[in-house]
C-alpha cells in the first residue's frame, strides 16, 4: 500500500487587525502623553568668604533692580556711586513689571549696556517669592516682534541676588 504524503501548508498569520489597532492606539497615546519641562535659572550668588571691599574696575558699571514694597528702583552703580535711573512706584493692582521691562529695554539700547548681560536683584526681606520670580523673568527676556512673529529677546540673563539696603528713613531691627 502506498501512502500518500500530504503537503502541509503553513498557516499565515493575519496581522491586519493588530495593525489597525496600532494605527489607532499610537496617536491616541501620543496625544495623551504629558510632556514635562523643567525651567532652571542659573543664579550667581555671592560667596561668604569673599572680602567686602573688592577693587572695582573703572569701566565696570553695574545695574541693579531694588525690589521694595513701594515699587522698583533701577540703579546704575559706577565706582561705588549709585545713581537712580528710574523709580517705578507700585500700582493699585501690583508691581509695574511692564514699566520695568520698558526701562530695561531703554537701558539696553545705550552703547555702554548693549553687551552687558549681568544684573543684580536686591530685595527687601518681606518680598514674596512669586514677585522675585516675576522680576527675574522680566529682567531676563522680553517679547519682541521680529519679521512679523513674536520672539523672546534677551535683556540681562545673568542674575545675581542680594538684600536691599534700608531706606534712609526706615527703622531696621
List the defining traits of the structure above.
6-stranded mixed β-sheet, 173 residues, alpha/beta, 24% helix, 3 helices, two-stranded antiparallel sheet, single chain
Give a structural overview:
- There is one protein chain.
- β2 and β3 form a beta hairpin.
- A six-stranded mixed β-sheet has the order 1-8-5-2-3-4, covered by helices on one side. Strands 6-7 form a two-stranded antiparallel ribbon.
- About 3% of the residues have low confidence.
- The protein has three helices and eight strands, in the order αββββαβαβββ.
- It is 24% helix and 29% strand.
- It is an alpha/beta fold and 173 residues long.
- α2 packs parallel to α3.
- It is rod-shaped and about 120 Å long.
Summarize the structure.
This protein is about 25% helix and about 30% strand. It has about 170 residues and is of the alpha/beta class. The chain has a six-stranded mixed sheet, covered by helices on one side.
Helix content: 10-25%
Tally of separate helices: 3
What is the chain-wise order of helices and strands? HEEEEHEHEEE
Question: Which residue ranges are poorly predicted, with pLDDT under 50 across at least 5 consecutive positions?
Answer: 53-58
Overall 3D geometry? rod-shaped
Number of DSSP strands?
A: 8
* Rg for CA atoms: 30 Å
Task: Tell me the strand percentage band.
Answer: 25-35%
Overall pLDDT level? 80
Secondary-structure-derived class: alpha/beta
State the major sheet: 6 strands, mixed
State the strand order across the main sheet: 1-8-5-2-3-4
**End-to-end distance:** 116 Å
Amino acid at each position: 500500500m502506498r501512502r500518500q504524503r500530504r503537503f502541509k501548508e503553513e498557516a499565515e498569520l493575519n496581522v491586519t487587525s493588530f495593525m489597525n489597532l496600532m494605527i489607532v492606539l499610537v496617536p491616541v497615546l501620543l496625544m495623551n502623553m504629558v510632556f514635562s519641562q523643567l525651567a532652571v535659572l542659573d543664579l550667581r550668588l555671592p560667596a561668604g568668604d569673599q572680602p567686602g571691599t573688592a577693587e572695582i574696575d573703572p569701566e565696570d558699571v553695574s545695574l541693579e533692580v531694588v525690589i521694595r514694597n513701594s515699587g522698583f528702583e533701577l540703579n546704575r552703580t559706577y565706582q561705588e556711586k549709585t545713581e537712580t535711573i528710574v523709580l517705578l512706584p507700585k500700582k493699585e493692582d501690583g508691581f509695574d513689571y511692564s514699566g520695568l521691562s520698558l526701562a530695561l529695554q531703554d537701558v539696553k539700547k545705550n552703547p555702554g549696556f548693549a553687551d552687558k548681560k549681568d544684573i543684580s536683584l536686591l530685595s527687601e526681606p518681606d518680598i514674596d517669592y512669586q514677585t522675585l520670580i516675576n522680576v527675574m523673568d522680566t529682567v531676563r527676556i522680553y517679547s519682541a516682534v521680529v519679521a512679523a512673529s513674536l520672539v523672546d529677546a534677551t535683556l540681562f540673563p545673568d542674575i545675581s541676588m542680594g538684600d536691599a539696603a534700608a531706606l534712609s528713613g526706615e527703622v531696621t531691627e
